[in-house]
Amino acid sequence: MCSYRRIALFSSICLLQIPLHAHEGMWLPTVLKSIEGDMQAFGLKLTAEDIYSINHSSIKDAIVLFGGGCTAEVIGKDGLILTNHHCGFSSIQEHSSMEHDYLKDGFWAMDRAAEKMNPGLSATFVIRMEDVTEQVLAALTGLEPGIESKRREAVGTIAEVLAKQAVEGTHYQAAVRPFNYGNSYFLIVTETFRDVRLVGAPPSSIGKFGGDTDNWMWPRHNADFSLFRIYAGTDNKPAEPASTNVPFAPRHVLPVSTDGVQEGDFAMIFGFPGSTQRYLSSYAVDYVMNTSDPLRIRMRAASLGVIDAAMRSSDRTRIQYADKQSSISNAYKKWIGEVRGLKEMRTVEKKREEEAAFNDLARMRNREDLLKVLPELETLYAQYVPYATARDLWVEMVYYGPEVLRFADGYRSLVEDEAQLTKDNKRSEAIEGRLATLTGYFKDYDVEVDKRVFKALLPIYRANVPEAFRPEVLKEIDVKYKGNADAWVDALYEKSVLVDRAKLENLLKGSPKKFLKVMKQDPGYRASRSFFTNFLQVIRPQHVILGEGIETNMRAYVKGRMELEPNKAWWPDANSTLRLSYGKVEGSEPRDAVVYEAFSTLDGVVEKYVPGDVEFDVPQRLLDLHAKKDYGTYGVHGTMPVCFTSSLHTTGGNSGSPVLNARGELIGLNFDRTWESTMSDIQFDPEKCRNICVDARYILFLIDKFAGAGHLLKEMNIAHHQGLPMINLPIHR
User: Fold this and answer.
1) What Rg do the C-alpha atoms of the chain give, in angstroms?
2) Which pLDDT does position 142 carry in this prediction?
3) What is the DSSP code string of 243-262?
4) Does 637 qualify as catalytic in the annotation?
5) N or C terminus of the chain: which is more exposed, having fewer CB within 10 Å?
């Protein structure tokens, strides 16, 4: 049996059991040495040290955690970074207006002075990662098992000590992160830059070509990329955004390959995948597949029905709601594919088979402690589902539904803590803080759209939230409005000052007494407080308690599986930490009689082109370049490569991750998965699962030939290896 430490570190002995065709796995860079041989057998020309090193420059020094939720990579000597268009979308939208519609027209800074600052946007590099499992677990000795709050407190204490020691005397940051439900822990030292400026982005008709129709689908034909630049102080260290900052000098720059890719080529992806759940129990998968996802799909479909129609009717509304619509629609379509994939793969049944095998092995080894785990999980989930359902509905209603509910919550302190704020002479400061938010909020707010969203979601919410978990305020619908929910919503928006900037601003600037009187009676504020209070007092406490019980048993289940089957390869679920996945450039045959080739071209863009269509229109200049076959040095055999698929294990957070060839050169930019792959967060299928990438040559073509921003290419290391075969792309007919 592998020792605990060997299990936690994914020893080379265990890893040698990986079959060569299976690309599942998001590997911590600290263990790459142990899988170096397998990667080289696949075709890698580098060593593990070339990819991840703490002693010299390596590929990891070009990988960026972008804004906390995406990945980017350094591709220029002056801090130029590449990420997805949808990752930079909120920044592009923030700079857009009716006068300068960068969403519609694109944006290209032709010199450094034109690059646009983005307050709050950050770029983070990993300096090093260190396994601190032994130190953390030693600090938990003697704790009563099963009390998660005490465990978290103890972990937090030792983590703070370890992090402080790791960065003492430096400008770095550090944190200790749990893996495998807290069976192992890693210290991660990082460097964060907060002056990140927008450099370039194609128009949405190119960056989001195909819109929601093509989202999660293959073939794809969009160039989902944008360019930013990291700025630093004159000492090349992080500095607050300022005009005196200078472009960051990176430790490593990824070469950009123009050689292209062929079916079967080695490929790897390096980035910050957000979350996977490969160890979920059958009870959890059943909840996701049959309750959670279907409900959330219904809620988002209702919101999108309103928002999409509004965006089509007005350019102003299109700009206002572009980022919001994107955040709602992406998960909506993903969940539809996830449910279908989980059903097709019989995931619940397979989980039950795994659990039966787990119990059989536990009996054989006389592990009575492990035989208790799954029955306990089953009991906990039976209690958990109503609370989880109520929480899911609350999140969809409050955080992805009508904005008035969460906007109103920002005024809670001014109302409930007014006496203390006045006593501490901090009320004026709080008022100024709220006034400062009004311009940004109302710039992207349409009261009629918000009202229609509220009306669309409320019936679904009321019909599905358990009776005991309904906010008190909703009783008014039956008592005061005789069951007419629309009339209740109409009255809320008619009477609330929170949906009218002028009224709200006057109220904030007026007397404290009047502010309190009006706000306490305001229907928008009252509805918000009822939703939040109900969640925080009725739903959340028990949801947390049951969730902690599930966490405790999942920790035991995962550890038990590792101990019972030590010769299997165990990689930890993604948790927004730096990971590498490797596989091949390849298509797939996901269903009977369906064959996906691995490549798409600009011919496919023209085939899909619909003049004036919100999703399939393209700029005339792109059509002209295609008609003339004016592809510069980036085209191949008379056509222009656009996207390709590969068998890399990805998830959210891998958006913007570099796809690299065997020499560590950028060949593509990851931006999506095929619809048949959306269940891969829970169950990965190496035959079906494919990630989708923009071809690096299409990115270079658009920067150079389409946008005329060839000056940016002068910063890059464009790699071409003479004599290598070029891909023979399929001809679209």
Assistant:
1) 27
2) 86
3) TT-EE---S----EE-S---
4) no
5) C
Q: Which of 58, 655, 657, 680 is catalytic?
A: 655
Kindly report the pTM of this predicted structure.
Answer: 0.89
Q: Which residue is catalytic, options 224, 446, 681, 695? A: 224
Quote the CA–CA distance of 695 and 670 in Å, as a whole number. 9
Dihedral (C-alpha) 286, 289, 291, 294: value to the nearest 10 degrees?
-170
How much is the pLDDT for 722? 56
Residues of the chain with pLDDT under 50: 1-22, 723-733
3-class secondary structure per residue, 7-48: HHCCCHHHHCCCCCCCCCCCECHHHHHHHHHHHHHHCCCCCH
CA separation, residue 587 to residues 39, 232, 402 (Å): 20, 42, 41
Position 592 scores a pLDDT of: 87
Tokens of 25: 């796995």
Among this protein's residues, is 78 annotated catalytic? no
Mark whether 630 is an active-site residue. Answer: no
Q: Residue 680 has what DSSP assignment?
A: G
Supply the pLDDT for residue 144: 83
Token digits of residue 243: 């005009």
612: left (phi over 0), alpha (psi -120 to 50) or beta: left
Find, among 33, 253, 121, the residue nearest to 714 by Cα: 253
Cα angle at 576 between 574 and 578, to 5 degrees? Answer: 85
How confident is the model at residue 569, as a pLDDT?
81
The vertex-215 CA angle with 213 and 218, nearest 5°, equals 95
Residues 6+ apart with CB under 8 A from 321: 307, 310, 311, 444, 446, 449
